[in-house]
Amino acid sequence: MSNPSITLSLLLLISFSAKLSSSRVFLSIDCGTSDAYTDQHSINWVGDANYTHTGETHTTDAQIPLWAGTLRAFPKLRKSCYTIPVPVPVGVKILVRAWFYYGNYDGKSSPPTFALSFDANMWGEVLTVPMSTDLVYREVIYAVDGDAASVCVAQVEEGQVPFINAIEVRGLDSGMYGNMDSSRALFNVYRSAFDAPGPVRFPDDIYDRIWLPNNITGGLAFQSDTSMMHVNITDNPPASVLQNASSTSNALQGIVFSFDTFMTYINLYFVEMTKLRSGEKRFIQVFTFDEVTEPFSPPYQSVREICITNSSGPLSIRPTNDSTLPPIISAMEVFTISDPLSNGTNAKDVEALKLLQHQFDALQAWAGDPCLPIYYNWEWVKCSSDQTMPRITSMDLSSMDLSGVLPDFSAMDALKSIDLHNNSFSGSIPDFFGNFPNLKELNLADNYFSGPIPSSLTNNNNITLHFSGNQKLCQSYNCAVSAEKKKKSSGNKIGLIFAILVSILFIISIVVVVLLYRRQKRTAETLQSIYEGNMHGQHHTNARVQEMPMRATDGQTSSFSFSLYK
Fold first, then answer.
1. For residue 502, is pLDDT > 70?
2. Domains in the chain, start-ordered, CATH in brackets?
3. Distance (Å, rounded) from C-alpha 558 to C-alpha 524?
């Protein structure tokens, strides 16, 4: 019967290991497609639509691997980038691998050459080849600064259109490749598994490092006599690359490696393939131009790692004088060391540019660092010469068909020139334009700005202003005068209308009075003639007054009296 506490401990360990594995970044992007699939290495791939906003998709003549059948080309911009989320702790390194396969996608049989960069740093130059079977890849290991990484391709010559087929991002464990601090990157030259039967990568290598078979010319191949292997070193090579080894055929002969590059970072992995018999000894030392290791014996069923940093010139593995067996090696990683990594464009400028890109969709095609690497800045910005943390000194968004209200980008306080002319910006001119301490020129011509020009601009003699072509725009004083004129004009119109109405009412009143008077007069004359006629037919000796009713103009009965005399 099993021990419950041991079972619980094992379950917790498995759960913890699964959690670590699931939290590690492991992203494979097939550029130029929207399809998701799983390849022959059990690696899940996704399309690239969520990682870039520019470029053209094309197909190639490749069928295997699947990602080689599509690509994304970038004929328009100087630099085009993918932005990739990498939620890893500060200081933890990632592995980024970019793949390129020309495949005559454009029918020109002319593979291009172009630049490759990551974040704000140069990665190298990509020389693609026309052969249908040639796959080119570049790999870098570095500590990402922030929550995203960028991979960019850039034109080095007109007509040389950059492209990319695939991007792989793999999170590494804390401490891996720790003999190089986070201020520099490691560019992979090659990663060898000596006398391995074939390439090794995921799932054998949980970090998906690619180990290619290699051998020593004229040497001997060995295979481990045990499958038991304890790999307890930080860089954690896969056990499968430690099952084989290469050696020289002569016990006194060393193994020599030559490198074309300076400033290399080298990991050497040593494993004894068989349990040595009595009297057999294998002691070796590693020599570089300026360093020699202590003698050591490769362990059996375990691994010994030797790391050489900042090395230049050839490297040799030699037997000691008392060794009875030749030197042996199982695997090796070789990197070149980058220059110190840039911090990128000043964070204030970067955040302000994000506001502009969020407001105007047309600007989202630009990604990566806006100023770096040098010579590969965004087309509409110019930057200071400081390559450590440059500032943006000029911004030209003229004639880019932008419309709407400007967000507040006043954090870009190193700007000397702002050109926004020939767009459709609207609303009032923002007051924050007066807050740029270094601004020398501001061009807002040919837009739809309205209202007054801020006095912080009109009163600043250090800024050359361009406002023409904004029909609803006015100087502060002119706006006030115009408003007063409108007020007076409105008052005059009201007075005139009132006078006209009073005059009309007065005229109507006069007409009504005249008409009433004339009507009453005619009525009186008519009644008088009637009475006079009656008097001629009667004989009365006394005079009398007779009162007759009549209808007034207001509809009420009134009395009209008159006297008759005999």
1. no
2. 22-174 (2.60.120.430), 192-337 (2.60.120), 349-474 (3.80.10.10), 480-525+543-563 (no CATH)
3. 13
